[in-house]
Amino acid sequence: MATITEITDLKTWRLARELNQDVFKVILSNESIKDFALKDQINRSCGSVMDNIAEGFGRGGNKEFINFLGFSLGSLSEVESQLFRAIDRDYISNKDYELISDKVKNLRPMIISFSNYLRNSGFKGPKWKVEEPEGIYTKPKNQNPELKNQNLKPGTVNPHPKTLN
Questions:
Q1: What pTM does this model have?
Q2: Cα Rg, the chain, nearest whole Å
Q3: Which CATH number does 7-128 carry?
Q4: Residue 41: CB atoms within 10 Å
Q5: Helix, coil or strand: residue 127
Q6: Residue ranges per structural domain of the chain
């Protein structure tokens, strides 16, 4: 299994990017489609598929990543619905519909499988790794020698409070 260090290492993100490129070629760059609301909506939802994968990856933890993969699935369903509207209105050909629809159908199980993998893996992401030096959490040594042996009881007031300059 390959180590994932960049968003471009993720197959799911790469396929989402291909989907985005195909939607642009087929629908967004088609000047004969005058339904600007549909073009805008499919552009935003298609972009949201890859953007949510990227944002989840950038969060650095499994729980948030899984959450963003869920958002990505929701956006993918929007793209699918918008494709039906495009074909129903004769904006795109059956061939173009199949091209994009096949990517949607391939991407959905990939996102679900990846989400399940993250949910069941022992790896929790760098967000929960603590690699700070242990010494920063230890109590500082008493720097004031005259207070060293006072043994104050809890609740008593220090007769020689340290003042800050």
A1: 0.73
A2: 27
A3: 1.20.1440.60
A4: 16
A5: helix
A6: 7-128
